[in-house]
TrEMBL record:
Annotated InterPro entries: Ig-like_dom, Ig-like_dom_sf, Ig-like_fold, Ig_V-set, TCR_beta_variable
Domain spans labelled Ig-like: 30-133
Single Gene Ontology BP annotation: immune system process
CC annotations in GO: plasma membrane
The keyword Signal is annotated on this UniProt entry: yes
Protein name as it appears in the record: Ig-like domain-containing protein
This protein's record includes keyword Transit peptide: no
One family name in Pfam for this protein: V-set
Any coiled-coil regions, as ranges: none
Amino acid sequence: TNFWDPLYPVHTPGEVVATLRHVPSSPAPPPITGGRCGPLPIEGETVTLRCYQKDSALNTMLWYLQPHQGGLTLIGYGYASNPTMEDAYKLDYEVKQTDDYKNCSLEIKKATQEGVYYCAAREGHSVRERQISRT
């Protein structure tokens, strides 16, 4: 299986990748808005969001969630193809990054979390890794 299937959309860092909304009493699947989005997910199914960037020097790609009532929250990131997940998201999310650092995906194992998902790219380690290396 080709992980980066050209039939599915990819996004650039900073672009709104997807907005997932759930209406508990609605029988219809939650709508997705923003960006170039693929098929609509059904609540509880796995959803994969993809992000692409052209600069291989930006070897850290990050995924954020902005709930409808709140600020941005880091879900996880891939640094040099090694994924790191924040504790609150380890069970329901997975970050994957290609070896060339240009493609990154966020797999949402159960599409129930409402909010706007963002992808970002940067050089180097995370702030947390830099702080650890200085001690």
